[in-house]
Amino acid sequence: ISLKANIGKYRFNNVLLNAAGIRCATTDELTKILHSTAGGCVTKSATPQPREGNESPRMKATPMGCINSMGLPNHGLDYYLKFAEENQDKNDNQVILSIAGLSVDQNLEMLHKIQDSSFTGLTELNLSCPNIKGESQIAYDFEAVRDILTKAFKFFKKDIGIKLPPYFDLHQFDQIAAVLNDFPIAYVNSINSIGNGLVVNADTESVVIKPKGGFGGLGGDYVKPTALANVRGLRLRLKPEIAIIGTGGIKSGRDVFEHILCGANVVQIGTAFGFDGVSIFDRISKELKEIMAEKGYTSLDDFRGKLKTL
Ligand SMILES: CC(C)(C)CCc1c(C(=O)O)[nH]c(=O)[nH]c1=O
């Protein structure tokens, strides 16, 4: 039974990756993931310069997952680009370089740097940042998405994936797919955390994280049905050349199986990886193989995208 996967020419010896943002901000953390059963690693979304991020507490675990408003703490693009250049092309382990500029110009500046570097892997463009502080995130402004991709593809000749926040309206799936289908994108990664949730502690009668009055992105059990809907909704609308990375609510082999049934080529684990560490990749690989064996599947291609309707 094989858990191998690919996104275009990029091969993954295991379908499981970490998700950007959790336990992936330092070279030690990234090396640990590369040396694990995972099929590669994704770097914490980078900004052009290092950032401290928001005040703590800025992430809180709950029985159903987690809430965060980290504020993009990271060591800056050069740090991750250097790691990516030094660790690419090692036995089918992909290093995916995630970037999240705080403006269109910052994203274009980082893409120019990546274009001019010796990095040969996949870049993941995180569109959950607001274009202008206080405005909606880029991914919820469809013309802004078209604008930034038009500008990027004028000079960026390497392969790029787009990290999207969840959409909650079927017409929004139509709109974002109509934009993305116009560009030579390698993959779409769906979903990012569900934005601006609020966790309340009734004992202390308080919010649980300091930034933004307690509002933050939700991950974990809270998001799986939304993640599966976005993977499926995008799979049914995106041109076949655009692969899908399924992210959101994965903590078992069964969850991975569901994401692949909905159309995912590769999956990423965030919240649960934060709880368990790299051993999760062994546990979930084993669970997924058991499910496949029970069903008589030997490869992920046997069931990818084959979700039945009633
Ligand atoms: C939310 C942003 C700070 C605009 C982007 C970085 C990010 C963060 C973060 O660094 O706060 N948290 C998430 O759950 N997803 C993200 O994409």
Mind sketching the topology for me?
Blueprint: E1 5-7, E2 10-12, E3 16-18, H1 27-34, E4 40-42, E5 59-62, E6 65-68, H2 77-87, E7 94-99, H3 104-115, E8 123-126, H4 142-152, E9 160-164, H5 170-180, E10 187-190, E11 194-198, E12 200-201, E13 206-207, E14 215-220, H6 224-235, E15 243-247, H7 253-261, E16 266-269, H8 271-276, H9 279-295
Parallel strand pairs: 3-16, 4-7, 7-8, 8-9, 9-10, 10-15, 15-16
Antiparallel strand pairs: 1-2, 5-6, 6-14, 11-14, 12-13
Helix pairs in contact: 4-5, 7-9
The structure holds ligand YRO.
Helix content: 25-40%
Low-confidence stretches: none
Bound molecules: the ligand CC(C)(C)CCc1c(C(=O)O)[nH]c(=O)[nH]c1=O
What is the mean pLDDT?
A: 97
Strand content: 15-25%
Shape type = globular
| SSE string | EEEHEEEHEHEHEHEEEEEHEHEHH
Largest sheet: 8 strands, parallel
Beta-strand segment tally? 16
Helix/strand class: alpha/beta
Give the strand line-up of the largest sheet: 3-16-15-10-9-8-7-4
> How much is the radius of gyration in Å?
18 Å
Number of helices: 9
Describe the protein.
It contains 9 helices and 16 strands. The chain has helices at residues 27-34, 77-87, 104-115, 142-152, 170-180, 224-235, 253-261, 271-276, 279-295; strands spanning 5-7, 10-12, 16-18, 40-42, 59-62, 65-68, 94-99, 123-126, 160-164, 187-190, 194-198, 200-201, 206-207, 215-220, 243-247, 266-269. It is globular and about 50 Å long. The two termini are 29 Å apart. With 310 residues, it is α/β, with parallel strands linked by helices. The model has no long low-confidence stretch (mean pLDDT 97). A hairpin with a 2-residue loop joins strand 5 and strand 6. It has an 8-stranded parallel beta sheet with strand order 3-16-15-10-9-8-7-4. Bound molecules: ligand YRO.
